[in-house]
Design goal:
Elements lengths: L2 E8 L3 H8 L2 H7 L6 E5 L10 E8 L2 E13 L3 E8 L4 E11 L2 E11 L3 H31 L3 H10 L1
Antiparallel strand pairs: 1-7, 2-3, 3-4, 4-5, 5-6, 6-7
Amino acid sequence: MPTILLNTFINAPVDLVFDLARSIDLHMKSTSNTNEVAIAGRTTGLIELDETVTWRAKHFGIYQNLTVEVISLEKPIIFQDVMTKGAFKNMSHTHKFVKKGEGTLMIDEFVFNSPFGLIGKLADYVFLKRYMTNFLINKNKELKSAAESDNWKSILKQNED
């Protein structure tokens, strides 16, 4: 199965980065280029253990729904979500957070594979791994920007309301 590993250093405390990574509101902001919207389950605030969220987004010109469930969570070290419904055959995203001085190393491990046998495997390696890598890099840039500025305050304030 294709695996994407990303390391993103963020000059912000680990607790803050952990919460921003779980923010449904920040996720929607960071994926506006795909019109991603939470339509079921947790649709705002911080996703927690055993909660689901269903995303509706436009990828490759087609609107698709993807439901994920948080299956493990240990604040502020790690959480993992897995796809329960969607276009992938399998998908798992592990988010790890390591305190590094005054900052945080955020580590993403995204593992997936497509349906449709050999054709799906070919798609995974020919274009889908690159597409998903760029998607995650852009999402992480938005999180980094929010955490390293005062923008996080309005995002987490939304979560308190």
